[in-house]
Design brief:
two-stranded antiparallel sheet, 12 helices, elongated
Amino acid sequence: MIVPCDHCSKPVKAQAHKLKKFKHTFCSRDCYAKWMSETRQSPSKPCMTCGKPVTRVPSKLKGNVYCSRECSRQAQFRTETRACENCGKSVTRVACHFRRHEHIYCSIQCCNKSRKGKPHPDPEHGKKMRELYKGQKPSPQCLAAVSKANSGRLRDPKVQAKMQAGVRKYYETHPGPNKDRYSSLNYNWRGGIAFEPYSEEFNSVLKATVRTRDSHQCQLCEMSEAQHWLEHFSLLLVHHIDYNKQNSDISNLITLCKKCHGKTNGSREYYTQMLSRLVISRSECIVQLRLL
């Protein structure tokens, strides 16, 4: 079948099935290019920075369009200012930040205040996280990093008093068959002395000195500090022999593991005499070694 070229009107031999498939017919590629430049116009879109019209192929006009590299760089570092949703302060950020985040806050404190009391968007989030971390324990490296980050940080006295009051109330009003175990009805109740504060001298430096004196071992079961860390994820405990938290003299302190420290809550007179003898003998051995 012979049909005319859509640009130069020359006769072109074409097959019937191609005429059904294509609307236009051309005798050569040059005619096709000339016809495209004369009759067909590419769509345009305004530049995101300066607003100039940008003419591109339709497939390249998706998303943000810029007329030059300078406009593209300016858009990357363009800042906007919006108000914090919690306190109303002005927040200046890169423009892309506001496109990525639905809610805008000036600080993490404002973010936490706005979310307080509101349920999580995903009702199954808590259940998923519990199943994910069920049975897992933090690694020693993680615990060491947390301990290092919190070392030297003093807790707010108001927060500490509030926490102690909450724990005391829980122990006194704990429901269940073992209610007497957590209240003044227990035979071992001593007036809530567990909530009494320690003396200022009882700090990390003094504890480290006591552990070094005792060769970093439990003085009852001889458990090493490395083994205690693997089992309980903590350092060896420093115990007050006479159970007086204000008496932080080094002769009144001894190194114990978590298990042995729990045993000292009962039979206090027996453990006071025995641990005192252990500390005296330990001190005499150290003095003799220094004389040698």
